[in-house]
Specification:
With 564 residues, this protein is an alpha+beta fold. 29% of the residues lie in helices and 26% in strands. The protein has a 20-stranded antiparallel beta sheet, sandwiched between helices. Strand 6 (197-201) and strand 7 (205-209) form a beta hairpin. The longest helix is centred in the N-terminal third of the chain and has 28 residues, at 18-45. It starts with 17 loop residues before the first helix and ends in a 5-residue tail after the last strand.
Amino acid sequence: MAPPLVSVPMKKKKKPSLVLTLSSAGLLIAAGSAAYWLQRQSSWNDLLVGANIIPGDALFAVSLTTDPQQWQKLREFGTKETQAELDKNLVQLRDRFLTNNGYDFQKDIAPWVGNNVTIAILAPKTTNKSVPKPVTTNEDVTADQQSMVMVLPVKNLEIAKTIFAQPKTLKQGKWVERTYQGIAIKQNQGLSGENFSAALLDGRFLVITDSPKSTERTIDAYKSQTSLATTGGFAENFPKIANKQPFAQFYVNVPTAAKIAAASPNRPLPTQVLAQLQNNQGLAATMTLEPEGIRLKGVSWLNPNSQRVLAVENKAGKMQSRLPAETLMMLSGGNLQRLWGEYVLTSQGNPLSPIAPEQLRSGVKSLTDLDLDKDLLSWMKGEFSLSIIPNTPKEGSPDNFRAGLLFMVQTSDRKSAQAAISQLDEVMTNQYQFQVQPGKVAGQPVVNWVSPYGTLTATHGWLDGDVAFFVMGAPITDKILPKPNIPLASSLSFVQTVSTEPNPTNSQFFLDVERTAKNFPLPTLIPNQQTLLDATRSIGMTSAVSDSRSNLYDIFIALKKVTR
C-alpha cells in the first residue's frame, strides 16, 4: 500500500494539476499493490503446494513432483525389490484417483498440471471448534472417518477447464453437478465405494477429494483463510526448508496425529502423554535427489500457544574427531543432562517410549547404588557421544566381542565425575567380584574391569583432561588412544553422508548401514526393513535448535544404484 502522507512546511507553490496528482497516487497504489502481491506470491512459493487450500486441521500432507526426469532419477537408486515396492504403491495411488475414473496421467493430466501435486489426509471433522482436548474414547476420532484431498495446480487453464467441463464417462454411475459457495462441483453418483468429487478453484487449482463433504471443507478453508497456511507456525517455519526443485515435501500435524493415536483401541496414548504432545505443532521436510542419494531438510516446531520453550544451545560437533574412521555408528549431542530432561518430559508414562525414565532410574539404582540424576547426569552437561567400533583382535588373543560400545562425555565438573566413577569401581569390586585394575594405553592411564572369568569387560579413562570415556565389550581403547590419525570426521563415508549444516549443531548421527548389516543383526523397527537396508549405504543426520520454538534437521541417505 502507499506510504502515509506527511505534512511538511513548504513555500507556497503553484498547485499541481489534478491529473498529475491522481496519476501519482495511482502509481503509488499500483506499486504498493504489486509489491504486496509479489511478496504474497513469494511466501506462497515457499510453502507446500496447496497450503492455502488444504484445511488447517489436516493430519498429513505430501507434495510430489510431476517432473518425469526426477522420477527417472529416483528409479536409479535402490534395488529391484525397492523399485517393485515403489511401483506397487504408485500404481495403487494412480488407480484410485485416475485409472478407475477413466483417466491417464500422461495423456489427460500432464498437459495442464503444475510442477507439483499435493495429497492431504484430512482428520475426521469434530463438532468441537475450540482448542483440541485429549481424546478419551474412540468414538470421537476414528481412522475410517479420514478422507483424502488432492490439489493439482493449473498450468494451462484452457485444457483444465475442458477436462473439468467434460469428465470421462464412468463405468458405473454418473457425474452430477452442484454448487457450493458459488463454486461448481462435479461428483460421481451411483458408484459403489468411494464418491469422488472435483472443483476448480479460481482457475488456479483443481481439487479432487474422495468425499463431497471434504470438498466443502476445502472450499471453506480456501474462502475463509483457515487453511494450512494459516495454521500456527506453518508459514513461519516451512520456508526454512524451501527448495526450488523439491522431489517431495511433507507436513505432519502432531496434535491431530496424537489425538488419532489416543483413539486407537490397540495402543492408546495416556492423557498425560497426549497433553505433552499438544505442545508440539508441526513436523515438515523437503526431499531432494542428489547424485548419491536422498536428502531431507526438516523442521519441527512447537505450538505457538504452548508454555514450553527450547533452549537455544548448539555445542556439538567435536566428538567425531576423537573417533576412528572405521566407526560403524555414532550418535552425539550437545548436553546430555538437558537431553535427559526433555526425554523425561515427553516420555514419562508413555507406553511407546523405548525406555521408561522411572525404570531406568530404578535400574541404575539397583545395579550401582547410584542416583542417575544426582550422581551421574549432574556433571554430564557437555557434549556426549555413543559409538560402536568394530574390533580388530590381535593374533593369539580371544575374539570374545566383535565390536566395542564407546561412551564419551565432556564433564562440567571433573571432581564430581571422578567421585562417581570411583563409586562405580567399588561397586564392580564388592558386588560383582570384578577385578578393577589400573593400566595404560598409549602411555595414558586407564582403569580396566576384568570379569571373574578373566575376560576384559570394560575400560574407562580420560581424554583431553575433561572428557570421560567408557568402553564396553571389545577392547577398542587403542583406537581412541592416541588420537586417531584418520578420525571419523575425516573419513570419506562420514564426509559424504553427514552434513555440515546447520552449523553450529546440537546433535549428529552416522550409521554405516552396509558394513553394520553385514556383521551385526539389527532389530526390526519398520515393515520391509531388510528390503530398505539392502538398498542403503549409510545414513547421516545433523540437527540444531533454530530458535526457542523450532528445530532444524538435515538427513542424508546414501543409496546403492540399481544394477542394470
